[in-house]
Amino acid sequence: MKKVILSAVAAACALSASAIGPNIFNHLGASVGVGTTGITIDVATPITGFVQMRAGVDIMPGITFNADADFNYYIPTTPEAQQGEMSLKGDLGRTQGHVIFNVYPIPKCGLFVAAGGYFGGKKLLKITGHSDELADYAGVSGQTSGSVIIGDYEIPADKDGNVSGGLRVKSFRPYLGIGWGRAIPGKLLNFQTELGVQFEGKPEVYTDHGTLRVSELEEDNNTFNKVRKYLKVYPQLTFRLGFRAF
To answer: Which of 153, 172, 191, 219 is 20 to 30 A distant from 184 in Cα terms?
Structure first.
């Protein structure tokens, strides 16, 4: 998270430094907004009469939800896996940086096409949970072979029956969008709105401890696996209030 913020600040400083140029980099704007990536903070500067560049940071608060998932463990005296169900918590909180170019086909019109990328915040969804049954089994057997099933993977539980892992995406994610409003207002304040998508690819399952295993049984109805299947692109809708610094 600190690296993302520092990178975004560095990009912002670069834009500010560019703003001292006599011709095209001669204005600076800023905005704050809310949307599906959380709270967004931007700074912007013009490159040409048709293009404005903005850089900033998106902070998604820790929005959480609970969903059930199957788990299994093996008893040495029984060849078949012992199964059960546990409640897991999903946490969508993450921080991302971005650099995006707004292209205005008609310079005097607020309509723009946006292209750029997001970086950092590769942990899309954090998954945690606890099972007393797995903890009891580990205490009796001295083994920690229990695991929770997410799609076609198994996240192992530790000796205390705790599960910690989640879904992660690429460190850099291309972005395309369309919107209305100039990144650098013509007056002191303006309103901006934007609709777009991040191209994340299929999220990967990861674990914070132990070794991720391929499951013999895939759990299709698992809520976390549905996120993995359908969030190959991340939809974005953002509303921003912008102001002109100079």
So the answer is: 172
